[in-house]
Specification:
The structure is a single chain. By secondary structure, the chain is an alpha+beta fold. The protein folds into two domains: 1-38, N-terminal domain of TfIIb; 40-137, GMP Synthetase, Chain A, domain 3 (2-Layer Sandwich). The chain is 32% helix and 38% strand. It is built from three helices and six strands. The chain has helices at 40-62, 102-116, 118-123, and strands at 3-9, 12-17, 22-25, 66-78, 86-98, 128-137. A three-stranded antiparallel sheet has the order 1-2-3, with no helix packed on it. Strands 4-5-6 form a three-stranded mixed sheet, covered by helices on one side. Helix 1 (40-62) crosses helix 2 (102-116). The protein is elongated and about 50 Å long.
């Protein structure tokens, strides 16, 4: 996997991923940014959410569950001093579908957290990560 990050101007940067996609990042105004794009640490949190949501959907589809939606709400706390690593992360999954089995959803969340989601497993080295989930029928 490769990525190139280029300074654009001010405190704005553009990342070009190995798959050829562009992602903008910017700093807060108090850090010289213009608040035009997410902060790098927000991107890290969003990437973690994407990684685990991908797992949940894939696991439930393979288990022939009638999943029609998946949302994960992440909230994080960071250390007060540098390096301001994540110290706590909560992930709450809203899994939508018809007749989803609670044990299948619980298993998918557990497998993602313990085996498949590289991003959250890596962040778990510095942050206490908690998971919760609910099923939305439909």
């Amino acid at each position: 996997m490769e990525c190139t990050v280029r300074w654009h101007d001010g405190m704005s940067f553009v990342a070009e991923t190995g798959s050829g996609h562009l992602v903008a990042m910017d700093g807060a105004p108090e850090a010289g940014g213009r608040n035009l794009a997410p902060r790098p640490m927000e991107m890290l949190l969003a990437g973690t959410g994407g990684c685990t949501a991908f797992d949940i959907v894939m696991i439930l589809k393979r288990g022939r569950q009638g999943i029609s939606g998946c949302e994960v709400k992440l909230s994080a706390e960071r250390a007060e001093t540098d390096p301001k690593v994540f110290t706590r992360i909560n992930m709450h999954f809203l899994v939508k579908g018809r007749n989803l089995k609670p044990e299948a959803v619980e298993r998918a969340v557990h497998l993602s957290a313990e085996k498949y989601c590289s991003a959250s497993i890596m962040l778990g080295k510095t942050a206490a990560i908690t998971h919760s989930w609910e099923i939305v029928e439909g």
